[in-house]
Amino acid sequence: MAPAAVPVSLPTASTATALTNAGIKRDLANVAVSHKPQLDASKLTYEFNKNPKVVAAVDDPVRRLQNSTTDHMITAKWTEANGWEHPKLTPYGPFQLEPTASCLHYATEAFEGMKAYRGVDGKLRLFRPDLNAKRMNLSSVRIALPSIPPEEMETLIKEFIAIDGPKWLPDPNTFIYLRPAVIGSGAALGVQRPREATVFIIAALFPPLDKPTGMRLLASTEDMGVRAWHGGHGASKVGANYGPTLQAQGAAGARGFDQVLWLLGPEGRVTEAGASNFFVVWKNKTTGATQLVTAPLGDRIILDGVTRRSVLELARKHLAIGSTEPRAGGEDLEKVEVVEENFTITDMIEAYDEGRLLEAFACGTAFFIAPVNGVQYKDKEIEVPMPMVMPDGSRAGRYGGTIKVWLKEIMYGVVDHPWGVVINERGPVLPK
């Protein structure tokens, strides 16, 4: 069965890019005709943890370390010679890797960030897991790892949280962070396609990362480098996107900033905020129309974030000019033009100086919808309004804050919505 995939818009700017794109398309297609065993979630085997861990309280400081995990993990091994082995659910524990493993030398690693939620109705949910599974397939193939059938990956994620969710999410209005990943685990040096890979799924305890006062961003300068570039791999969720940014992130943190606002090129194109997508709301300079603006996907510089996609879809349905489906909380907001196009730090400064900048926010799984209160670019400080008081007393912009409320209602079961996928949980019990 050919794996489903989000549409791929592949540039052809250079011979190297064209070769990469051809390889990606070939690998996505070859799985449909392969006679080797494919990943099959129905073949999952079970070994439950006989020494289960203690669940840390929601306010336990250990959660801030982000290294406490649940009782189990799922793994599945692939080899070039024999295809996929049966996936296994086992007690959480370390891997055994050879020092020559591809992932340790050539960054052959891709991952997803997801959350499972305990709703106000007591039910356990995932948020749009099909999108994470499809994106992980594309990211894996981008770095020459095997195609991972999204339907099977999604089923394994659901089964994992059905086992560990009941114990580790006992209380309503709580979440746990999920990390599906794939690594080149084969033992071979030399710059070559990995001949072995391992998929795994784990879950970790995270604290809420919301900042009641909003985030302060430091816009990057040329000496800080760039996060991604045209024809690169910014659209894939691969480890190689993140390691090179950590020095700049640490330096920004030491100066009191929460994240780096990554700019690209001499014109200062705005791309992402840290590891999150970035939005502004402003009045268009020419027409005066209120616009919700974010960078486009077409040049594959930014990530097709699940939260980003959800923000755009909700805005187009409930807030866009011409929309006819008002939703509680958005009735008093002026209708907006939803725009995916490039803009620069100069555009932001100009909008601020002219009083046209209404709000800004970052969005992603970890930070969710994170309002921005300010951006520093060289010696220029952009102060961003945050006029809305949220239900928890924090502040936000009116559009980002409203969409944040809508998304939380879906994630925690306040409203019934197809994006909130209910899990048939059972704990460490074999399926019937």
Automatic annotation (TrEMBL):
| Catalysed reactions, as listed in the record | L-valine + 2-oxoglutarate = 3-methyl-2-oxobutanoate + L-glutamate; L-isoleucine + 2-oxoglutarate = (S)-3-methyl-2-oxopentanoate + L-glutamate; L-leucine + 2-oxoglutarate = 4-methyl-2-oxopentanoate + L-glutamate
**What broad class of enzyme is this?**
transferase
Do you know which Pfam families this protein is assigned to?
Aminotran_4
Q: Name one GO biological process term.
A: L-leucine biosynthetic process
Keyword Ribosomal protein annotated: no
Instruction: Identify residues that carry N6-(pyridoxal phosphate)lysine.
Output: K237
Q: Which cofactor does it need?
A: pyridoxal 5'-phosphate
Q: What EC number(s) is this enzyme filed under?
A: 2.6.1.42
Q: Which GO terms describe its cellular component?
A: mitochondrion
| Molecular-function annotations in GO | branched-chain-amino-acid transaminase activity
**UniProt keywords, alphabetically:** Amino-acid biosynthesis, Aminotransferase, Branched-chain amino acid biosynthesis, Pyridoxal phosphate, Transferase
- Family, per entry: Belongs to the class-IV pyridoxal-phosphate-dependent aminotransferase family.
What is this protein called in UniProt? Answer: Branched-chain-amino-acid aminotransferase
| Protein source organism | Drechslerella dactyloides (Nematode-trapping fungus)
